[in-house]
Structure formats: C-alpha cells, structure tokens
Known about the structure:
- The protein is α/β, with parallel strands linked by helices.
- The protein is built from 20 helices and 27 strands.
Amino acid sequence: MRQWCVRLAAAATAASFLVSGALAPVGGFEPVTAGALPAPASPTSEAVAEQWVNPMLRVGDTGAVKLTELTVTDNDVTGTVEAPESLGTQAQIFLAPPVGDLPSAFNLLGLNPEAYPIPGPTFPVGQFHFTFAELGITEPGIHAVLLRVGEETTHFLITVSPSETDSSSEATSRSEAAGAVALLWPLAADIPLVPGETGTAPERPPLLLRDESLMAELRPGGRLARLLDLYPGGHACLAIDPQLVDVLSRMSDGYQVASTRPSPVEPTVRLRERWTAKKDTSSTPGQGAALAGEFLARLREVAKNRCVVALPWGGADLTAATRAGVLGEALDASVLEEELETPVAKNLVVPSSGYITPETAAALPQGTGAITGDGLTAQLATLGEHPETVGYTDPLTRFRYAVDSPAARRQSAAAAIQFARQTADPTTTPPPVVVPPRLLEAADAAMLAQEVPDPAQLTVPPYEPATPQVDPTGLTDVEITTAAQQLRYAADLTNLMVEDPNIAVTPEEFTAPLRRSIVESLSLYRRRSIDLHEQATSATRVKLDAGRDVLQQLRRSVTLLPPGNVYTRTSNSSPVVIVAQNGLPLPVEATIHAESEDATVALPGTLWIPAQGSITTQLTADVPKQKEQASIKLWLANDAGAAISEPVTITVQTKGSNWWVWLVAIVTALFFVVRLALRRRRH
C-alpha cells in the first residue's frame, strides 16, 4: 500500500492548534470578537443583521444583472449578461486597480462603483467577448471587474499571470514556475434522518429517512454521483463525512421512508384500549437501496490508495460539540475505515466553521493538525446556489453574495485558485489548500477539477493561535445548552441499565445513537447560508425536540405502578403490594424511596427489574391508630439516590382503623330494634 499522503509539516502541541493565521481580518480591519449568540435569530433581525451583511456594501444591487455564462481563458473574457429592460439595454465594464492578495480582492467584490475607477468597453446587453487588452487589463495580478447595467452591477474576479501581459522569457518562466495547490474533495450530504433512534443488537435498527432526497443525489447525474465522477484523483484528498458512509451502508440493506419514528418503548395501555392502540407509524419502503450499494462500492474503489480525510460527523460545529460534551462523537471516523477498507488520515481535523476556538483546541489530542479557513477558502465559500457567510472574515467586508450570479461567483473562485497557484512558493511553504464548501455542487466541482488537475500532496502546517471574528452562523447558547442537557440525560440512562449476558445489546450500544443524534443536531450544513439559515435552525430545533421526547419516553418507561389511589389493608401489618415496571431493553437496578408524614414505611432492598418487564414487590406502612389513613409518596432511585422515575402517591388505610364507624352503626341498629320491640308490646 502506498505511503500516506497527508503530512504534518512540523510538530506542534494541541495547545497551539487554535485558529490559523487565516483568521487575520480580511482587508485590514481590526478584529471584532464575540461568543455564540444567546438564541437563534433571523439574519434580518436588528440584533444580527449587520453581522451577516454590511448595509454600506453593494448599495442598490438586487441581483437583477446576471451573468448567466462566463468564461475566462488565457487572454479572453466571454459571457452572457441578462438584465430587465427597465434597467436599460447597454452594459459597461469598469475595473479596479489590480491587487496583490486574496483578502483585498475579496473586499473589492463587495465595494460600490466608486472603487472601480477604470472605464472599459460599452456593449449591448446579451453576449459579449473581449480580450484583456480591450478591457484595459495590462498588469499581472488579480483584477476585480464590475459590469453595470443602469443603476445595478455585478462583480467578478480575473487573475492575470505575468506571461499574459508580458511576453518576455522571464515572465513566461515565472508563470511556468507557479506552485501547485492541495485539494480537498468533499463528499457530504444533508441527510434527512428521522431523529430519535436507539440502538439494537446484533442487527442495527431499521434506517428511517424523511424523504428520498438522498436517493436523488445518488442517481446518475445526481450531485453525489457527479462529484464521484469528477474526482480528479492523484493527491486530491477525499474529504468524507462519516455520517454519509454510515447511512449509505445501512441504506444499501433497505430502509423506510417515514415522517416520525415509532416509540422505542412499549406504552402502558389499559386492557380495554389494547385493541385500538396504534402499534406503529405509517412508512413506505425506500427505493434507493441499490443506488446506495452501488455508490458505496464505487467510493470504496476510488478511495483505494488515496488520501482520505474525515470531516466532522454530520457537519457538526466543533465549537458547539466541545461545549456540549460530544467532541469525541463529532470526530469519530471509524466507520470510514470499516466500510471503505482504507486508512484515514489521523490527527487531522477540518472544522465545519473554518476555525477552532481555544476551548476546542485544548480538547483535541496532542499533535492534532487542522485545516482552517483563509482568503481562498472564504472566496470558495461563496460558490453554489446558496453562498455561505463564514465566521473568519471581517463582518465589515460581508455582503449578500447572491447579488452576483453563480457563474460570476464560480469565475471569482477560479481566479482565486489561479492566484493562489501563481503566488505559492513550493520551495519555502506548504502548498495552499483548496477547501470547497461541504455541499459542493457539480458545476463548481467541474471548475475545481479543471483548475486543479494535478493537486499537490496535502501538508498541514502548525498554525498560530488567533480568535474568530463575529460569527452569526454558529450554534447558539440555548441550542448548545439543550444539547449538553440531553447528553447528561443519555449518560444517566446508560448508567441506569445493567448489562445482561443473555441480551445482545449493551447500555452503551443502546444509547450510542442518542449521543450521535445530539451531534447531528449541531450541524452547520446550510446554516451558514443567509437564505437557508432559518430553515437550518428550525431543523436543529426539530432534532433537539425529538431527542428530548425520546429521552423522556425512555426515562418514564421505568416507573412504579401503584395498586390504586387508595389501598385498603385487612390489618396494619399487611404489606402494600406494588409493581415496578421497566420498558427499557436491559435490566434496571433500582431501589424504592418513600416519603410520608403519617406513616413509617419499611422498604424492600435493591430491585432487579427485568428488561421490558416488571417485578412485584411489597412494603409495609405502619399507620398510627389515631390516623384513619396515611398518604405515601413513592419513587424509584438509582444507587446514588437520584430519582429515576416520576413519584406516585398512594393512600393506605386499614379496615380495622374504622372501628368507631362500626360501633356507631351497631348502636344505631340496636336503638331501632329496641324501639320497634317496645312499640309492638304496647299494641
């Protein structure tokens, strides 16, 4: 097997793996730092609107001027511009002076026409073709281009090499010596899992998906199928979401499409209701099992002897995962090696947010490297139908990227890659890394394959600590707090159950999917898009709510079933019979605790409540003679004394305790008998 293709350029400690120098403010502004937002907020809300979009940038642009086609070759620009007739029929090109770094170029795309003082040609709206000379491009570097129709504009970037403006042998030599760049090739999907899964053994539980959107991506011509077709090979690293491979493996064995998941515990149903109680939720067999198996087989073949890098599980935000206590689950990539039968790069993380906070860095294993965001990655994040806002750019440079068409943004990304290659020095520094959006679209993947046909070997350098910018896209305090709370509940549930050699599943295996669901609720997929942010936060809420509901059902399935609201005994020494029920798939060890102001309660010892069964036990309650009855509150507790069931209250009374009632009745009866006898004697 060929040597591994990911190298750590130098040794470094986990303490140094914070956020790379790529987080230096784009454009020279002073860094502004902030923690997570307290709660989800719409990108248009006053509290966060300016963290998403600087209102002073691209003033008046609505996206009405569209570049539907745009091709830049060695010395030519060809394209098609569309605009409403109300804006006019003539278009004009303007240029900004060339710049020498990607952050400055990124900034120019957001600036207003005043930053583009160099006039270019005027032409009718529609198709156009110009040489660099006709556009007025005479210097090498990265050029920002503004195309104007009426009062609206669209922007894109062009990179010009020295050889394209200077025919000298020296310029040609410099161009040919341009360095290579490394490339991550993402394979990930926003998978429509039905949340609330629990573990089973020896087989895994049935896979439930909300819809067939994943199948559509696997079909010939679908997004994932095209990404695998376009993979350039060589040193290009497959950056794979382990959740995708896990789901594809299960999907290939068959799955169901359903909107909800059946309860993991058998509900307590009264006898007369058993015939009408619903046993299951409606579902239909999934149609994509064969496609999933074929895709997984192709991926397994493509990944052989290739560089494979694991992305965080389900696109999880590592900052949120650290705070919630599920960082280990978020970085678990074991399924990749199991299913793909190939090694995966160790001690390397590619954070979904593009940065790593000091808190996360301290939690990573010693010697872990990270690929974080920079000016190139920020430009690539704007690709696709739903461009992303990244938290490592200066908020003062952010604008609504969708005012430029996908074709324009694709050209800007291509120009950024070309510039990175031209300015890379292969003799002194590791090659730049091209990190596309996780949910890369096929058209953008085709551009990447063209621009990086022979990627360099991935080398991960150590990086200096830095602090992220204001990031309105991340998980909020309330979401992280909810996730952390659910993790504690899941841990309590795990500790509540006891392993049984006769039962295949273990407590950890049963609750593992619950912990994984918590990780999946922390996903950043689609959350960084201003257009999809609210939809993504709603999906997070649905996942967290479903996790809460399942955990509550599981906890409530371990309970006490009292004999009734009032328990009547024949004597004060008669025991009170009570049933402890367990709806979990493993036995539970618990003790009964009691609280009463009126009675002294003698409790049984530790109970072993069988899996999905019940046990009958008894306790005694000494009720004082002067009391007619006593109220007792009972609940189950673990070995630490913490309650594990809802309390139940019963009232205990003894038949003999009502002697005075019988005495009054007897005296009254004797009175009437004597009175009746006297009346008869008189007559």
